[in-house]
Specification:
six-stranded antiparallel β-sheet
Length: 386
């Protein structure tokens, strides 16, 4: 009965997806169901986006259908529990595959499977309860089945089920499989059980889903993504290399800024679509490039900085170090921002924020997921509007 109760609650959750803020209830904003909502709102990534609760006695149907679209390989879609977070269920993505996690009494289960869903295409997901199993079908094909049995399970005929979209109501420490909760994705066209109560919104304003998207990281001139340079493997010989790809003629604002541990601006790249120029700042040096390239690369070595504009490794600019310590020493313990110009204050503020789509961000040759940023995850981390 537990699986049925939790499944019913969660099936409701995935289909009560709001189209817009429609009113308030006891000071709380509320949303109605059956339309489009973006899951990657700028907030505490573990905090639910919207939530509601239903009496188990009111639930009649045990199947729901909704559509889901993302390029993001990892994140929480929805959560539900009965018994005040003692028994819970999570549907998420991990490496692009659906992941179900269930906890009930003395039993915990996690199952990953089905087709990859992070292809940017709208997929129809059907979730239902069949006996002791929760079944997920994708585009009318078998996707994932989860079953469990507990000796402690008792029939649940009363009480409430709490539901949350885009986050958790239980502690993240209770998860069986660790994951990054932030989900750059959308849900729409939900059909939910027999219930129609509104959901409470935890945000002042809900961001909209873009009609058409492409892979990349989209900045809307509202903030930047910040990293400590200590998380990257900075070698004395190879230094630190950052590569950015995209249509720079369609961007405006700071692409990249790097600051030393002492608060000195070591380098910055800025796009200006009014002058059709890319501005390069390395210490006191300032230069310009045309913005018709598709890739920029900046490398901080021990005693110089190289800026490359093309994929054939031709060096556009090279700057020798004019002061001590060298670049590698200055970089360690420093900060790196994508999409904004770092300030010199301790609160890590920024300015000259970027507008546009970075199709690929690489540091030390590795693709960077902006969900792992330290601060101000204001970008859509895996999708750009077309």
């Amino acid at each position: 009965m537990f699986l049925k109760a939790v499944a019913v609650g969660l099936l409701l959750a995935v289909c009560l997806i709001g189209r817009r803020v429609e009113g308030q209830r006891r000071g709380k904003k509320i949303v109605s169901g059956d339309s489009l909502i973006y899951l990657g709102q700028d907030r505490n990534p573990w905090k639910p986006l919207i939530r509601t609760a239903a009496n188990i006695s009111e639930i009649r149907s045990i199947k729901s259908t909704f559509q889901f679209r993302t390029y993001d390989p990892e994140g929480v879609i929805f959560y539900g529990d009965s018994g005040d977070a003692q028994d819970w269920f999570i549907l998420s993505l991990k490496d692009g595959f659906p992941l179900m996690q269930i906890s009930k009494g003395d039993v915990q289960v996690s199952v990953t499977g089905g087709p990859k869903l992070n292809d940017g295409i709208w997929h129809t997901l059907d979730v239902g309860s069949k006996g002791k199993f929760v079944v997920l079908d994708v585009d009318n094909l078998p996707g994932l089945v989860v079953g469990m049995h507990s000796q402690q399970t008792k029939e649940v005929v009363s009480g409430q089920i709490r539901l949350a979209l885009g986050g958790l109501l239980a502690s993240k420490d209770k998860m069986i499989v660790e994951l990054d909760p932030q989900m750059d994705g959308c849900v729409r066209d939900g059909r939910w059980l027999n219930l129609s109560m509104p959901w409470e919104v935890d945000e002042d304003e809900l961001l909209l889903c873009h009609q058409n998207i492409q892979p990349g990281s989209y900045f809307a001139q509202e903030g930047f993504s910040l990293f400590n340079t200590s998380v990257f493997d900075i070698d004395e010989e190879s230094g630190l290399t950052v590569g950015l790809s995209g249509n720079f003629s369609q961007m405006d604002g700071t692409l990249l800024s790097v600051m030393s541990s002492e608060g000195e601006l070591l380098g910055a790249l800025r796009a200006d679509n009014k002058t059709n120029k890319l501005h390069v700042t390395i210490g006191k040096h300032k230069d310009e490039l045309t913005n018709n390239c598709k890739r920029l690369q900046i490398t901080f070595l021990r005693s110089k900085v190289e800026v490359l504009q093309t994929l054939d490794k031709s060096i556009s600019f090279s700057y020798d170090q004019e002061s001590t310590p060298g670049y590698i020493t200055a970089l360690r313990g420093g900060r790196l921002a994508i999409g904004g110009l770092l300030g010199d204050r301790e609160d890590m503020v920024g300015s000259h924020f970027l507008t546009g789509c970075l199709e690929k961000i690489q540091i030390q040759g590795n693709n960077i997921d902006l969900d792992t940023a330290l601060k101000d995850k204001s970008a859509s981390s895996h999708s750009c509007p077309v």
